Amino acid sequence: GAVVSQHPSRVICKSGTSVKIECRSLDFQATTMFWYRQFPKQSLMLMATSNEGSKATYEQGVEKDKFLINHASLTLSTLTVTSAHPEDSSFYICSASTSGDYEQYFGPGTRLTVT
Amino acid sequence: GNSVTQMEGPVTLSEEAFLTINCTYTATGYPSLFWYVQYPGEGLQLLLKATKADDKGSNKGFEATYRKETTSFHLEKGSVQVSDSAVYFCALLSGSARQLTFGSGTQLTVLP
Of B6, B48, B83, B98, which is the most exposed, with the fewest CB atoms less than 10 Å away? Predict the structure, then answer.
């Protein structure tokens, strides 16, 4: 149980385009989802926290207009990187938790490369 | 604020060697502590956890004990295998925001 999927696993896009990453909880209802960014050989940096049906809470320094997060249902959250630039290239990981459980269940990650 | 300090890597061991990866933390209140493992190109998997002082988390031969007096949660394994090669993250969860604070990660390579 407690499986989280991400799609796509890898994406290459051209500079200036937008790309959407999906995070799904497959066998539980995720009241809270978290989006992280990980640079090579570094730790995870929390970008934002989203609760189902509410606006996401962004961490300091994360541009909310560039990284659009939508958590429209209890099983799906999306991260859209708008007008992507090469410096947005990174590994993006989501996690999900339920209201009655503090534990976070992580997705397998999405490798974004902006050319 | 909360913080997690991990032993810097990379760590390279021979198969069947003893492993210790140190982790200390600073937190308000009584955090829950976690070890996650990340295999190449993949997301994080929970390895073990402990939710209160003196609890010992264990899984797949790995162990860590929540030591409040030394604010530590060191990861140990008696005999590592090549398949244990991965990056290991220590993390804590504290406060109502339910946000994890991660350490910097430790790369472990086990040689046959």
Answer: B83
CA pair distance B28, B1, nearest whole angstrom: 7
Query: Shortest CA distance to A50 belongs to which of A80, A83, A82?
Result: A80
In this complex, is the C-beta atom of A97 within 8 Å of any C-beta atom belonging to chain B? Answer: yes
pLDDT grade for B43, boundaries at 50, 70 and 90 = confident
What is the rounded distance in angstroms from the CA atom of residue B104 to the CA atom of residue A76?
A: 29
Give, in order, the Cα–Cα distances in Å from A89 to each of A43, A94, A111, B41. 15, 16, 8, 15
CA distances from residue A62 to A9, A31, A66, B61 in whole angstroms, order as listed: 22, 22, 8, 39
**Using an 8 Å Cβ cutoff, are A62 and A82 in contact?**
no
Amino acid letter for position B87 = V
Q: Which of residues 12-41 of B touch A (CB under 8 A)?
A: 32, 36, 41
pLDDT tens for each residue of B18-40: 999 999 999 988 899 999 999 98
